Amino acid sequence: MRFIDTNIFLRYLTNDDAEKAKKVFLLLKKVEDGKERVATSPLVIFELIFTLDKFYKVSRKNIGEMTAAIINLEGLVVEFKDTFIFALKLFAEKNISFADAFNVSIMKSKGITKIYSYDTDFDKIDKIERIEP
């Protein structure tokens, strides 16, 4: 097994270097077909989302679709797959930061409905109560 860094996913998703994008496509095809098994970390996925959003100005909807496709690759090992998928949906639909969306996703998975925070973005989330200390 090998590890995949953020820039590999970025070359494929942005196609900003056609030659590298093609090579990454071939690698990801092997991963999808189960011919190669790779791992990445939640931090890589966070960095991917942040970079697509802030530097490449990709729409949140497209970020969600592209990142979900990567996360769901058959031969990719990454923790919190379901958490990421739910968080990507919140990120696109509620217009909140991905970090907030991920935290809400963790909360929901643990049955937590209240959060201590001064961040009013949490007020946009159904069934989550924000409490200021």
TrEMBL record:
InterPro entries in UniProt: PIN-like_dom_sf, PIN_dom, PINc/VapC_TA
Domain PIN span(s) in chain numbering: 3-127
UniProt-listed SUPFAM superfamilies: PIN domain-like
Coiled coil: none
Short name of one Pfam family: PIN
Organism superkingdom: Bacteria
PANTHER family found in the cross-reference section: RIBONUCLEASE VAPC13
Name recorded for this polypeptide: Type II toxin-antitoxin system VapC family toxin
Organism of provenance: Candidatus Acididesulfobacter diazotrophicus
Lineage, uppermost ranks: Bacteria, Deltaproteobacteria, Candidatus Acidulodesulfobacterales, Candidatus Acididesulfobacter
